[in-house]
Design brief:
It is a single chain. The chain is an alpha/beta fold and 309 residues long. The protein is 43% helix and 8% strand. The chain folds into two domains: 119 residues, no CATH class; 163 residues, 3-Layer(aba) Sandwich (Rossmann fold), CATH 3.40.50.300. α6 links the parallel β3 and β4.
């Protein structure tokens, strides 16, 4: 594969990065600290962010730091989630046999959570990902799920994770009862320029490539999303790897969206002086894919000069 050609020991920017190898940006460190407090206080959290901002990654990093025996993470991510499916999935993760009726499964799940708290001081964390897709009825069911001891006790922590529209929905008067229960709110934004460079360099090191010290003028990288998809980040290196193709990257590239629309845009290529051929070319392609994903996600068709002088 092209990884060997460019000196990678593994494919960079994949989702299969071990929690210990994740890039610890300032926002994520702050979010992890708050989520740990959420678990300790058995609170109700709301985490939002744009697509690719690292919400699910933060949850995965948190789970790796928690004691699974005392604070198990019950993770739910399902489109079209219904109360029946919610309690069934929670029951299975708690080691229960779901009943035929939703009410029976709900009682079994809530009793198991309460017994774990009262008898063993366990603090389970329920995470509902993609919560912006929840129906109004499902949001109301979550409110009932947090109602223990006639709304006087909280034997668990619960966190809704979703895109920014979730915050807007919970501001509506219809969901005021749910919004008032939220004890932690956190929104993940884009990475600043310096952290974007550090993010790319960190993941290249994880992939086995030393980070070149000659990155110049990375203005196009400011306020970027932390995600570079595996397909996008590895699109450029492949043509040079294929037999019979040129090993030199062209100075302009077009994204799949641009190819479909017929538009084109010149993309700046950073100066890679001092870097090895494989390292420099690979990093240049990854930076290009990173910038493309940022422009497309922001809807900004803009030109960037490829002059590196």
């Amino acid at each position: 594969m092209f990884e060997t050609y460019y000196g990678f020991t593994q494919t960079p920017f994949t989702r299969a990065v071990a929690p210990a190898a994740l890039f610890g940006c300032e926002q994520h460190q702050e979010l992890l600290a708050r989520l740990r407090y959420l678990v300790q206080s058995r609170g109700f959290g709301l985490v939002t962010g744009e697509v690719g901002s690292g919400k699910s990654t933060a949850v995965r990093a948190l789970a790796a730091t928690l004691d699974a025996a005392r604070s198990p993470v019950l993770y739910i991510s399902q489109s079209g989630l219904t109360p029946r499916n919610l309690y069934r999935d929670l029951g299975l993760q708690l080691g229960l046999s779901p009943g035929f009726y939703t009410a029976d499964t709900r009682r079994a799940v809530t009793q198991a959570i309460w017994d774990a708290h009262a008898g063993h001081d366990r603090r389970p964390l329920i995470v509902i990902d993609e919560a912006h897709l929840l129906s109004p009825a499902m949001l109301e069911e979550i409110r009932f799920l947090t109602n223990f001891g006639m709304d006087s006790a909280s034997p668990m922590a619960l966190c809704l994770v979703g895109q920014p529209e979730l915050r807007a929905r919970l501001r509506l008067r219809a969901f005021e009862a749910i919004s008032q229960r939220v004890t932690l709110r956190f929104h993940l934004g884009g990475l600043p320029e310096a952290e974007t460079k550090a993010y790319i360099g960190h993941h290249l090191k994880v992939a086995g490539v030393a980070h070149p010290s000659s990155l110049t003028r990375p203005s196009a990288l400011s306020t970027s999303s932390p995600r570079v998809s595996p397909a996008g980040s590895t699109t450029w290196p492949r043509p040079a790897y294929l037999p019979g193709s040129s090993s030199k990257r062209p100075s302009s590239m077009r994204s799949p969206q641009e190819r479909l629309s017929g538009s084109s845009r010149t993309i700046w290529v950073p100066d890679m002086a001092g870097a090895g051929d494989g390292e420099g070319e690979a990093l240049g392609g990854l930076l290009t894919a990173f910038r493309r994903s940022r422009y497309l996600s922001r809807g900004r068709p803009k030109s960037v000069s490829n002059d590196t002088s």
